Amino acid sequence: MSLLLLLVVGCSKQEEEPAKKPSPHGNITKQEAKVVVPESVAGHWKAVKIAVQDKEKSSEDIYTVDIGYSFKLGDSDLRLKVTNFLPHFVMDGMTLTSLSNDPKNPAAQIVITEKGKPVFKGWLFSLYPNTHAFQHPRYGFSLVGYVPTNGEKGKKG
Fold first, then answer.
1. CB contact at 8 A, 62 and 157
2. Pairing mode, if any, of strands 95-98 and 89-92?
3. How do residues 81-107 score in pLDDT, each as one tens digit?
4. pTM
5. Are strands 139-148 and 34-35 parallel, antiparallel or unpaired?
6. Residues 107, 125: contact at Cβ < 8 Å?
């Protein structure tokens, strides 16, 4: 009888603590998407216009920032850099690119640092301002326009 009791107790313990199975994917590391700016886009866009909402002051300022450059946000410790602009943003697997030079889904890749340390690296989308938006206690950021290098039409802003 005691042997039967041990077997039953032994079985219940195994059911309570299921064996840990190794992941079939092995060690998963976060892979960063690759940005590819097509030749048809490269050099055709000079800058983007970024609206910065100050939640404390209930105000908004629009900054025109050349692609590849950065600016310091007023008296804050924030610095925003525009690294890429894709007028017709698409994601194809782990590649981010533009289907054309037409601004059908404009997106600007930005890096925001605070006191010299990166706090956000991502995209601002003109058509979808809340998608993957950077959450800062005081400031909000959105892409409101883009400036072509010469003669091409950009969005007002």
1. yes
2. antiparallel
3. 999 999 999 999 999 999 999 999 999
4. 0.76
5. unpaired
6. yes
